Structures are given as structure tokens and as C-alpha cells.
């Protein structure tokens, strides 16, 4: 993120000044979208699965319909910046999308307990950001606790949660592996978790040429993330193994349930957003077309 900020400042010849705050310093992670809509902070991350009702259309990107997470990140970035329906839904909340952040690969879960099937998850409290992955864990029998990333380490430390579902990168960088022994795949790919948005009123004060520069840098930022993430996975795996973490392979009984829940989620998503007055079929078709572009 610091590269993105520095690059915008540099290319604007210091006309733009952005001060970054650590998660929770201004508002809680779950409250950032509401804050941006009100203009405080002026720019921030919308982790849409924390509250899928705020910009309901964004929950489209929680659906695991892409062949790879790399395709999903690029299609996500394309849709929030260029799709008229998606832009209009963001506009209802006074937001303009600048860039996105995405994880690559499989959704993993870290636990202290060895998991061999759904029965082992009964009674375990697992942190999840929300959305489809939370529903899958609930179906598997876990008790899901939704919270932001910044709140997760102390929750693991206190024993408020017994595990966490996320990407390998987050598990490593947020030091959550300090409280686990086993990492196992949840059975579905990662969804791109957040979009960086700026308050619409603030955006409208920015000259057109500078707006274009900011969007161009946002595109570069997305590609830079993908490259950096791909290049870091081997080192992340090595660090986790050095901590004594056991990396488990696919657990068939869990994968079967995860995929069944995923199929139901796609069908129910279209019906739910259409009922809310959003053209769900058109959005879903547009997302599938965007995915094909990047496959």
C-alpha cells in the first residue's frame, strides 16, 4: 500500500498528500466503508464481506466462480472501475473505486487441533471475515466469529477463537501462526477481499488529469500485488514450516461440503440481489465475461 500512496504523491508532483493510518486508528475496520461514505476517512479499504448489506453488489466477488484467484483479482479490479452497474452501486454510497487488493491461491484455515473431517470442527470457534467462507465453516459445524484482521491476533492470544480462515500470506504476516499447528485447505479458492475507495465528493475536487493518474497507478498497484504475492509464496511456506506448522493436503469430506455450499451461494446470490433491486443476472454475466478476459 505504501508504494501505491508514494507513487500517487510522486506523479502528482506532491499536489496529492495521503496520510496512511494503521487499521483501527481512525475507525474500526468494519466501519471504514461507512466512514468513507461520510468523508472520514476520505479514502479507505472496503472489506465488503464484513457487511455485505452496505454495498450489496460487491458480494458478487465472494462467489468462487473463477478458475484461478489471479483471474478473480483482475476481473474484480475491472468490474469496480468499469462496469456501469457496479459503479452505480458504489455511487449510492458516495464511493469511487481506485484499486483492489487480492489474495492468491486457496482459502486456508489455521487451527491448533488436527482436522481430518467435519466432526473435528464441532465446537471450535473459527475467525472468519464473513461471507461464503463463514457459511461453509458453519455448515461444517464450527462456531464462526467474525472480526477484522487487526482484532484477530489478540483474540487468538486470549483464546476467544481457536483458529482462523484466510490466505497463507495473512496467516504469516499477521503472525496468527503463533497460535496454530495445522493449516488445511477449506476447499475453495480465495476471493479478492477488498476494494480501495475514495469519497465521491473528494474525488470530484480532483482535476481530471490527476484522476486518470490515480486510476492508472491503481491498475499498476493491482498487477504489482499479483507479482509480489506469487513471488512470496515459497518463502511464506518455508517460514510457516520453520515455525513447526504442518501443511495438510485436501480433506475430501470438507471439500465436498465447501463446493456444495458454493454452488448454492451462486444461485441464492442472484435471487437475493435481484430482490434488492440490483440486476443480479446482468452483474453475474458481466463478471463471468470479465473472468474469461483474464483466463
Mind explaining what this structure looks like?
- With 295 residues, this protein is α/β, with parallel strands linked by helices.
- Helix content is 49%, strand content 15%.
- It contains eleven helices and nine strands.
- It has a six-stranded mixed beta sheet with strand order 5-4-6-3-7-9.
- Helix 3 (69-82) packs antiparallel against helix 9.
- It is globular and about 55 Å long.
Largest sheet: 6 strands, mixed
Q: Helix/strand/pairing class, anyone?
A: alpha/beta
The geometry reads as globular
Which strand order does the major sheet show?
5-4-6-3-7-9
Rounded Rg:
19 Å
Catalogue the unreliable spans: none
Helix-residue proportion = 40-55%
Helix count, DSSP H or I runs of 4 or more residues: 11
Number of strands: 9
N-end to C-end Cα span: 26 Å
Strand content: 15-25%
Residue-averaged pLDDT: 93
SSE series: HHEHHEEEHEHEHEEHHEHH
List keywords for this structure.
15% strand; 295 residues; 11 helices; globular; alpha/beta; 9 strands; six-stranded mixed sheet
Write the layout of secondary structure elements.
Layout: H1 2-11, H2 32-38, E1 43-46, H3 69-82, H4 84-92, E2 95-101, E3 106-111, E4 125-128, H5 131-140, E5 143-146, H6 149-158, E6 163-166, H7 168-173, E7 182-189, E8 194-199, H8 200-203, H9 208-242, E9 246-247, H10 252-275, H11 280-294
Parallel strand pairs: 4-5, 4-6, 7-9
Antiparallel strand pairs: 1-8, 2-8, 3-6, 3-7
Helix pairs in contact: 1-9, 3-4, 3-9, 3-11, 5-10
